[in-house]
Design goal:
Structural class: alpha+beta
Radius of gyration: 21 Å
Order of helices and strands: HHHEEHHEEH
Mean pLDDT: 77
Strand content: 5-15%
Helix content: 25-40%
Low-confidence stretches: 1-11
Number of domains: 1
Number of strands: 4
Shape: elongated
Oligomer: single chain
Length: 178
């Protein structure tokens, strides 16, 4: 088979049906980033990376692809310096790439818990204030006593979400029944 006869296909994200993944949609086209993805040395063989689900790996690769960089120095001493902070990856962008909201949230939580991401700014609940993330090096210490655990904070204050309200109403009705 000649190289010109090869068929190029777009592989959807894991857990996404081919019908749902529409690579030629305008949202998908707008979400494309034409930058290379360079994984830091040791990340692929790390213990934390081995615990990631395939969807979390794709989310991590997208964050790595989004990081900005600049060159410092002159001549032979010129080197690339990566800016690890200020990364935004919204739910709308994830959906345009074929990642469901629940899969995206689960992937973000895993990346934060295993030390690949840190939350710089927790966004608001109404979509006008995006969360900003920073790539972290905490994954290098995963599984050691020096590892600093982190979790994504809840957007709502405890007690203001729907489940807390339902539970409070159940407790109130149980007290009235007694």
């Amino acid at each position: 088979m000649l190289e010109s006869d090869a068929v190029h296909t777009v592989i959807p994200f894991p857990g996404v049906s081919k019908e749902k993944h529409k690579p030629k949609s305008s949202k998908y086209e707008k979400s494309l980033i034409k930058r290379g993805i360079f994984i830091p040395p040791g990340m692929y063989e790390s213990r934390a990376f081995g615990l990631l689900r395939p969807s979390a790996i794709l989310i991590l690769l997208r964050f790595i692809q989004k990081q900005r960089w600049h060159k410092e120095g002159k001549g032979r001493s010129k080197r690339i310096v990566y800016d690890k902070g200020g990364l935004v990856f919204t739910y709308a962008e994830a959906e345009a790439l074929g990642i469901s909201r629940s899969t995206f949230l689960r992937g973000l939580n895993a990346l934060i818990e295993l030390g690949f991401l840190d939350v710089e700014h927790q966004g608001g609940a109404y979509g006008h204030d995006y969360s900003r993330y920073a790539l972290s090096e905490r994954w290098r210490d995963y599984g050691t006593p020096t590892f600093k655990a982190s979790q994504k904070k809840r957007r709502l204050q405890p007690g203001l979400d729907v489940n807390s309200r339902i539970n409070a109403m159940k407790k109130a009705s149980e007290k009235e029944a007694i």
